[in-house]
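Q: What residues go here?
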């Protein structure tokens, strides 16, 4: 059973991002380098996952990939997205989109909050399993 005490799946979910960011900041204040707050998780592997991620200055997410397409939407601060040997600086208001299976890492020299969205896809290219 999840330790999260709020609804993460359903036909219609709404959020006030400023409230969610406030909660994230509170957890980030005691975290070593990063913290995350899941907003949507539809099933154990998705088809859709939305997570607010907070990175302290110098914080990072190590290189990884995702089963489906990914977006990174920077809400505060700035991050550098690393993928394929290239660096992509993203400031507040920037969005990056990655295809399924694309390896990437995210780091922030000065700290940041971003919305990470992942959509699961099947091998046939359909949006959902």
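A:
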């Amino acid at each position: 059973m999840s330790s999260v005490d709020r609804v993460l799946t359903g036909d219609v979910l709404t959020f006030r991002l400023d409230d969610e960011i406030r909660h994230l900041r509170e957890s980030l204040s005691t975290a070593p380098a990063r913290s995350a707050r899941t907003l949507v998780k539809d099933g154990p592997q998705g088809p859709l996952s939305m997570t607010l991620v907070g990175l302290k200055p110098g914080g990072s997410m190590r290189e990884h990939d995702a089963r489906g397409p990914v977006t990174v939407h920077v809400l505060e601060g700035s991050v550098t997205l690393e993928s394929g040997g290239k660096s992509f600086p993203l400031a507040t208001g920037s969005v990056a989109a990655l295809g399924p299976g694309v390896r990437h890492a995210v780091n922030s020299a000065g700290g940041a909050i971003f919305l990470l969205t992942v959509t699961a896809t099947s091998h046939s290219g359909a949006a959902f399993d």
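A: Context that may help when evaluating the design: Residues 123-129 have pLDDT under 50 and may be disordered. The helical segments are 17-28.
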